[in-house]
Amino acid sequence: MIGPYAYFVWTVSFTAQLYVVLLSIVRGEFLRYASINLYMLAVATASAAQFITFVSFGFASSEYIYVYYYSDCLLTVLLFFAILGLYERVFKQMEVSKHIRATAALLLAGTALFSYLVINKNQSYLGSRFVVELAQNLYFVGVLLTLLLWGAVTKLRETRARLVHLILSLGIYFTANAAIYALRNLFPSVELTKALIPLVGTFLPLAWAYTFTFVPEEARLAPARVAAVHR
Amino acid sequence: MIAVLILLVSLLAFVQFFLSYCRALVATYRKWELSEEVRKLTGIHDAEVQAEALPRLRQLVQLCPESDDKLELRSVNTYFGLLNLFRLTLGRFLPPLHAWLEKERQGCAYFMAVALDRRIAHNRELVAQQLANRL
Asked: What is the spatial distance between Cα B47 and Cα A62, in angstroms, rounded to a whole number?
């Protein structure tokens, strides 16, 4: 049985994901933010798949658990490419696209190798605990990547408001997820963390929907006004 | 051990990103020109909005039909609460910090005024659409 909370969270999230993609298509910005739009499209597809499994097999079923956690891990890897798309935008004028693409290939290979090693080492308990640990590590790689990008943005004195909003919301999303998964790993019996994950999942599509709707491409802001550390 | 480390680093980074995100929201809207209607309604005359006006502005925003800015309003409200906390504690002992906190609080109030402006415009569009559909 699906409760009103699950329905609400799913509906909000799914609507915002589709809204971001449709808005980009309508405004002719789909290719400009291709990595973000492709990610949103993939998340919407995964959300639909999760919902169908949820309705068909139930919340506690192994089918739902596998679809939920493994699609989540795959989407996190896809989100790395969205970050790399943002890296490319930040470093565009420095003409380092080749290096960024090489880093992307390395990152993918590194993530695959890391996942293989973890799976190989933990073959005896490939259950939900393993998935939680894997998700925690993947989100933490995302935290590090976003922190590096944010460091570059402040160092290069990036003024494009839309780009700044996209990166910061990504940072909030990754850090919140990494913290929640770490808490789940430390305290597996605490039920609250399970309820928080889908709620945090709604943040990114909502924040990006807001950014694409209200922050125009040409909007600029002074980087000194944004960095959290007062200088 | 690794999970504890990840938790600590993530929480610190979360605070950093959250504060920066709120500051970016507030900074983006500082340049936004308020409409004459909102100025009259709220009694705002110049470019600055007094921080103390924020609760009243928030109430006015809540009276308008909801728009898709709920998450951002909540973020700025939380940021305003944190700034108030810092003002009452650290701000008392550090005058330069107090001045900076005051400016940020004013930015939050201005953000709220812009949100009100937007919601009124959105409301007007909805009414116009309804009237057009009736005709």
From this structure: 58
- Partner-chain contact B27 A213, CB within 8 Å: no
The angle that helices B95-134 and B2-28 make with each other, rounded to 10 degrees, is 70
d(CA A57, CA B29): 47
* B21 chain-A contacts, CB cut-off 8 A: 165, 168-169, 171-172
- Among B14, B23, B69, the residue with its CB nearest the CB of A172 is B14
Domain count, chain A: 1
Residues of chain A with C-beta less than 8 angstroms from the C-beta of B97: 230
The residue range of the domain holding A206 is 4-230
From chain A, the residues in CB contact with B11 under 8 A are 175, 179
Sign for the CA dihedral angle at A185, A187, A190, A192 comes to negative
Distances in whole angstroms, Cα of residue B116 to Cα of each of A58, A134, B73, B128: 42, 43, 11, 18
Is residue A119 pLDDT above 70, yes or no? no
The three-state secondary structure class of A37 is: helix
* E strand or H helix at A66: helix A62-90
Say yes or no: ipTM exceeds 0.85: no
CATH code, domain carrying A74: 1.20.1070
CB-based contacts of B85, cutoff 8 Å, min separation 6 = none
Confidence at B135, pLDDT banded by 50, 70, 90: low
pTM (predicted TM-score): 0.82
Compare CB distances from A136 to B6, B11, B16 and report the shortest one's residue: B6
B27 contact residues in A (CB cutoff 8 A): 161, 221-222, 225-226
Strand partners, A220: A160
Which residues of B touch chain A, with CB atoms under 8 Å apart? 3-4, 6-7, 9-11, 13-21, 23-25, 27-28, 68-69, 71-72, 97, 100, 118
**Contact criterion met (CB below 8 Å) for A215 and A161:** yes
